[in-house]
Amino acid sequence: MPEYEYVGDGRPDGTIVGRASTEKVGFWGIAPITQPTNSAQAALTLVTAMSANFGFSTSAAFNAFTAQLENIRANLVLMGLLKGS
After folding, report:
1. What is the pLDDT of residue 42?
2. Which of 6, 68, 79, 85 is the most exposed place for a label (fewest CB within 10 A)?
3. Cβ neighbours of residue 35 under 8 Å, at least 6 residues apart?
4. d(CA 69, CA 4)
5. How far apart are the first and last CA of the chain?
6. Count of Cβ atoms closer than 10 Å to residue 53 Cβ
7. Contact 17/24 with Cβ under 8 angstroms?
8. What is the reported pLDDT for 41?
9. How far apart (Å, rounded) are the C-alpha atoms in residues 43 and 72?
10. Separation between Cα atoms, residue 21 and residue 79, nearest integer Å
11. From CA 69, how far away is CA 24, in angstroms rounded?
């Protein structure tokens, strides 16, 4: 029978990992890091009524989306939540 160690203590409101953005967290043996920040994490607005450009009003909007997606992937790899290679 498997034996597991649980992080939470069963409180009804859930479990938080890391008390502040400056506290380091890591997963699956990766060295812990503080909460990633980057200007590419800003919210993006897509234009869904367009039949062309896949919902992006300009190529700059598409490039911003691509940069944001690459940033998210890099941060997931840094935290150990995604293998990355």
Report:
1. 65
2. 85
3. 18, 21, 22, 25
4. 34
5. 33
6. 13
7. no
8. 61
9. 12
10. 13
11. 22
Cα–Cα distance for residue pair 28/81, rounded to 1 Å: 8
Classify 33 as helix, strand or coil: strand
If the chain, 85 residues long, is cut into consecutive pieces of 10 residues, what is the mean pLDDT of each piece? 85 89 86 78 61 69 82 85 78
Q: Which residues contact 77 (CB under 8 A, 6 or more apart)?
A: 83, 84
Residue found by looking up tokens 């009804």 in the block: 12
| Token pair of 15 as six digits | 């479990």
- The structure tokens listed for 66 are 């691509």
Measure the CA–CA gap between 85 and 23, rounded to whole angstroms: 26
